[in-house]
Design a protein that fits this description.
Number of helices: 9
Largest sheet: 5 strands, parallel
Shape: globular
Helix content: 55-70%
CATH superfamily: P-loop containing nucleotide triphosphate hydrolases
Bound molecules: adenosine-5'-diphosphate
Order of helices and strands: EHEHHHEHEHHHEH
CATH topology: Rossmann fold
Low-confidence stretches: none
Strand content: 5-15%
Strand order of the largest sheet: 2-3-1-4-5
CATH class: Alpha Beta
Distance between the termini: 10 Å
Oligomer: single chain
Number of strands: 5
Length: about 180
């Protein structure tokens, strides 16, 4: 049983690493970015509301992601644990998550902060070529990360839940560092 939150800037490798870890623990990998992208592709009501924010590198409104995550955490497969990737992304979302988990009588075990320097992030994102990976949007996403998401590092540090892992190494090296934690 593991309940983990992945924190880190865009391009840190959260998606890749958290997916591998979730598969090896046989627990669901819950990525708000992935769920939102699917909603945009399917042009669902959620996708239609989220699209313009995502295209500009902004966070989508808290209410949309909170509803989405609440619904996802209510599914029976979360009993075995979960990995959250991309949520929470600001202090309000973190507070709401604490509230949701207290109602479910769940708690997270650890928050993993994947640490990667800016130069590496930009290079990785530019080579990835996702729709929101053009230079201007990348710059905005990094700014949003610094202003809104990075404060979560001290939020979780003060709760003694944070572990920082050096994400500026090969995929295999990061995976093995994570396996040694879990
Ligand atoms: P990355 O880690 O590369 O930024 P994600 O797939 O996690 O990519 O997120 C892509 C986009 O989805 C974000 O730029 C944002 O617009 C939206 N998004 C994802 N998660 C959240 C969240 N928790 N709160 C608000 N917006 C979110």
């Amino acid at each position: 049983m593991a309940r983990l939150i992945f924190l880190g800037p865009p391009g840190a490798g959260k998606g890749t690493q958290s997916k591998v870890l979730a598969d090896s623990h046989l627990i669901p990998h819950i990525s708000t970015g992935e769920i939102l992208r699917e909603a945009v592709t399917g042009q669902t009501p959620l996708g239609m509301k989220a699209q313009r924010y995502m295209e500009r590198g902004e966070l989508v409104p808290d209410q949309l992601v909170v509803d989405l995550i609440q619904e996802r955490l209510d599914k029976p497969d979360t009993q075995s644990g979960w990995i959250l990737d991309g949520f929470p992304r600001n202090v309000i979302q973190a507070q709401i998550l604490d509230f949701i988990l207290s109602k479910l009588s769940h708690d997270y075990d650890r928050v993993i902060n994947l640490d990667v320097p800016d130069e590496t992030l930009v290079a990785r994102l530019l080579s990835r070529g996702r729709k929101d990976d053009n230079e201007e949007v990348i710059r905005r996403r990094l700014e949003v990360y610094r202003d809104q998401t990075a404060p979560l590092i001290s939020y979780y540090e003060s709760r003694e839940k944070l572990v920082t892992v050096d994400g500026n190494q090969s995929m295999e090296a990061v995976s093995s560092a994570l396996n040694n934690l879990a």
